[in-house]
Amino acid sequence: MRLRTVQLPDGPAACVALADGRYARVDRMLTDGPRDLLALLESERLGELASAVDAAVPDEDCVGAATVLAPWTRPRKILGIGLNYGAHAGDLGEQAPRTSPASFLKGDHTIVGPGQPIVVPPGIGKVTAEAELGLVIGRPCYRVGVDDALDYVAGVVPVLDQTAESVLMENPRYLTRVKNYPTFFSFGPELITLDEVLAHGPLQDLQVATIHNGALHRKDTVAGMTFSPAELLSFHSQVMPFHPGDILSTGTPGAVAISPGDVVRCELGGGLAVLENPVR
C-alpha cells in the first residue's frame, strides 16, 4: 500500500493511494478507523486496512485529486544517521565509521511536506540537502536483533535531510545545532509499506538518489551503506525504544549545496518514490 495524508475540505485525512489516482479514506475503510496516519500506525491496523482495500473500495469511501501534505508532523522521534556511505564521508573529508554508526536526533519542528519550501536561514553559510531512505517504525521496538529488526518496520519514505554544513565545519559537536533549523527535514509524499517495497526487489538493491535542479548529483544502493537498515535499527534499539511513526533516516549517498531558487529531489528505486521541494 501507499499511504498519504491529503487535505480535504473538512481537514487532513489519511488515505490509501489507489492505482486509478483516487484516494480511499482510512476512516471509512476501517470500522472506527483513525483519520490520522500516525494514529493508524499506532493502532497497528495496517494488515486490516490492506485486507479492506483488497476486498473492495466503495466509491463513497473515495476522494479524487487532493493536495498532499506531510504524512504526519508529530513523530515521537526522528533519528538521523551520519556518514553511512563511504562516498558521502569523503565529501566532508571524513571516514565512514566502521565499528558503530554515527547518529543524531531532529525535532518535529523541522518537518515539511512535499512541495513545501526548504528555507535557507541567512548568515549561516553553506547548507546542503541530502536524499535518504527513511524507515518508518510500525510497532514498539526495543532491544531487537538484526535478524528481526525489519519485522518492526511498517514501510519506507523518501527523505530530504538538510545540514548547515559551514556551521558544522566550525565544530563537529554542533551536529544537533546544524540539523535542527525549521524546514530541515522533508518527507513524503507517501509511506510505502515494506511488502510493496520488497515486491520491487531486495531492499539492498534499492537505489537512493539526490537530484539537484533536475540533474543527478549522487546515487547509490542500500547495499552501499556501511550499516544496513536492519543493523541501524537493531543497534539504536539497544539504547532507546522506537514507537510507531518514528522515522529512522539511514544516511545519504551524497549531499548537495543548495541556494534559494533551487529545487531538490529524493528518488527511491528509480521511480518507486519521489520527493521534491523548492528552496527559498
Write out key terms for the chains shown.
14-stranded mixed β-sheet; alpha+beta; metal-binding; 280 residues; Fumarylacetoacetate hydrolase, domain 2; metal ion binding; globular; four-stranded antiparallel β-sheet; Fumarylacetoacetase-like_C; 9 helices; FAH; Fumarylacetoacetase_C_sf
Q: How would you describe the overall organization of this protein?
A:
By secondary structure, this protein is an alpha+beta fold. It folds into two domains: 2-68, no CATH class; 78-278, Fumarylacetoacetase-like, C-terminal domain (Fumarylacetoacetate hydrolase, domain 2, Alpha-Beta Complex), CATH 3.90.850. The chain is 20% helix and 34% strand. The chain is built from nine helices and 18 strands. The chain has helices at residues 26-29, 37-43, 46-55, 86-91, 146-149, 165-170, 175-179, 194-199, 229-237; strands at 2-8, 11-17, 23-25, 62-63, 67-68, 78-82, 102-106, 111-112, 127-137, 153-164, 185-187, 191-193, 207-212, 215-221, 247-249, 255-258, 263-268, 273-278. The strands form two sheets. Strands 1, 2, 3, 4, 5, 6, 7, 8, 9, 10, 11, 12, 15 and 16 form a 14-stranded mixed sheet that branches. A four-stranded antiparallel sheet has the order 14-13-17-18, with no helix packed on it. A hairpin with a 4-residue loop joins strand 17 (263-268) and strand 18 (273-278). The protein is globular and about 55 Å long. The model has no long low-confidence stretch (mean pLDDT 95).
